[in-house]
Design brief:
- It is a single chain.
- This protein is mostly helical and about 210 residues long.
- It contains eight helices and no strands.
- α1 runs parallel beside α8 and α2 packs across α5.
- The longest helix has about 30 residues.
């Protein structure tokens, strides 16, 4: 029971951080010529999910983080297509869980740098590619608009090129995360409850306030 409460607090904490970064940094990037979605997926989305999987070693946690971050993005009062972004973020959480669902495939068991880079690239590419395509298909269904397959086909070259960038960024992110000493990651995840729960609650509330004020 205590472990479940710690996990729920972690989902809320890191999902809130992810949501705030999507609303702040994501919106800022989208207003530039940079492919903001790919950068957010390869660095922020994948980075937070990989870091929490390393720290907590709990499958399913990242699914909850993606759902919460997507919901917070949807409630963000400004920006572009909030529904599109929310769906994309949630789908990224699903794709991450599907890739890393096997107990035999653990992030901290990737021994060589080539394996770490390769799995990072695969994860980032799949998260962005599948997330974008799913967004284009699900958004019209959810919003009640028409699904035009021809428009999806036109967007595919740009989608795949941005997915490549997301994969490359994730390929650099994963080795960097795994370079952090394992005992440090374990200490962060197992900090005393007297500190863990108040800190998680405070940071989460500050993230929600930040999203409302942006």
């Amino acid at each position: 029971m205590k472990q479940n409460l710690r996990l729920v607090a972690g989902i809320i904490l890191f999902g809130s951080i992810w949501g705030l970064l999507e609303c702040a940094l994501g919106d800022a990037l989208h207003s530039t010529v940079l492919p903001g979605g790919a950068i957010m997926t390869g660095l922020v989305g994948f980075g937070l999910m990989a870091a929490t999987r390393i720290m907590y070693r709990q499958p399913g946690m990242q699914l909850g983080m993606g759902a919460l971050a997507g919901a917070l993005k949807y409630m963000h009062p400004v920006g572009g297509c909030m529904l599109c972004s929310a769906i994309a973020i949630a789908v990224e959480g699903v794709v991450f869980e599907l890739i890393w669902r096997s107990p035999q495939l653990r992030l901290d068991r990737l021994d060589t740098i080539s394996m770490r880079v390769s799995m990072g690239v695969i994860s980032g590419y799949a998260m962005y590619g599948v997330g974008y395509i799913a967004t284009q298909m699900l958004t019209p269904i959810v919003s009640g608009g028409p699904l035009i397959v021809a428009d999806l086909a036109v967007l595919m070259p740009r989608t795949l090129s941005h997915a490549t960038l997301a994969g490359l960024l994730a390929g650099a992110t994963l080795p960097a995360l795994l370079a952090v000493p394992a005992d440090l990651s374990e200490r962060i995840a197992s900090v005393r409850k007297e500190v863990y729960y108040p800190a998680a609650s405070l940071i989460s509330v500050l993230c929600w306030i930040g999203i409302l004020l942006l």
